[in-house]
User: Fold this.
Amino acid sequence: MSAPKKVVLAYSGGLDTSIILKWLEIEYGCEVITFTADLGQGEELEPARAKAELLGIKPSNIYIEDVREKFVRDFVFPMFRANAVYEGLYLLGTSIARPLISKRLVEIAAEVGADAVAHGATGKGNDQVRFELSAYALNPEIKVIAPWREWDLSSRTKLIAFAEEHQIPIAKDKRGEAPFSVDANLLHTSSEGKVLEDPAVEAPDYVYQRTVHPEDAPDMPEHIEIGYERGDPVSLNGKSLSPAEMLTALNELGGKHGIGRLDLVEGRYVGMKSRGIYETPGGTIMLEGHRGIESITLDRGAAHLKDELMPRYAELIYNGYWFSPERDMLQAAIDTSQEHVSGTVRLKLYKGSVQTVGRWSEKSLYSEAHVTFEDDAGAYDQKDAAGFIKINALRLKLLAARNRR
Assistant:
């Protein structure tokens, strides 16, 4: 790969990406443009601007953007229409943020005439795959620089020494070994490494940042109502909310009641297993609510097919294939299924759990006349079931007869 002349860097303002910024300038002699996305990580982002300026980046080359609404509307909500969970448990909070960041990196590169983008993901994780597959899918000519796969700064000690040599500010808590690393956005927090690396040892409670311990949650349950339109939550307790407002409000409710904690050992796409602590309070509530409204509005055949497709869909997102034809195909099928998924769900929040306790819709397929144990006034002839059972039992009877011979 020829040396890039201008690089757009996914920049957090932290130590690692600040070192990457300086390393790119030294290694390639290139101009660096920084992009910092406000995904709802809960941190003030203006310090990232000040840090980039301190490191010599021109103000016109510093991009800081609030993409919370786009993140939830165009990425989180479509994923939740599928009820997507990876390996049965993980709500894909980190995975779903990467394609948005990559998309903006590529777009900014086109705007400023950059010939490369760069990220701070390591060579051991999934994020490098997600960033780069997305970038190449959007611009096959783009160069992607992954410093962690190129440099010799293989330890925290070497990183600190590089930072000190090049006058890169180091936060005091970065001088020692951090107890764990954290990735956060509006959907979740993800904590990995150090004190969490032994999967046999329970995670210390200080790892959790968005949720109270379920045992310390309120002793009285709280009931909420979420209104849905075409599979997306649009109102909370009767008040219309934007996508980002909705997830923010549900995060507050879920955090208050200790909802959405997950201790998971997962299979990374690169082959190894890793242990992570995830908090997805609002997402956990959304998943339960969505399944609740689907239960009365979605036909059995469509619902069961969706459940069959979901693991494949979730795996595509986890592995970095958001911008792929197969994900687009599945999304089209999922979105079609949501045409009549509208109505209201009542949920009970209590000490780490969320439970659907009521649901109603003008598009409901639920017929009390057909399922009642009282007089159904001729809505359903129970004698019809005899023929239904005989037809479906025929092959089983033939099998049994053969096996008895």
About this structure: The CA atoms of residues 225 and 236 lie 6 Å apart. The chain has two domains: 6-177, 182-360. The mean pLDDT is 94.
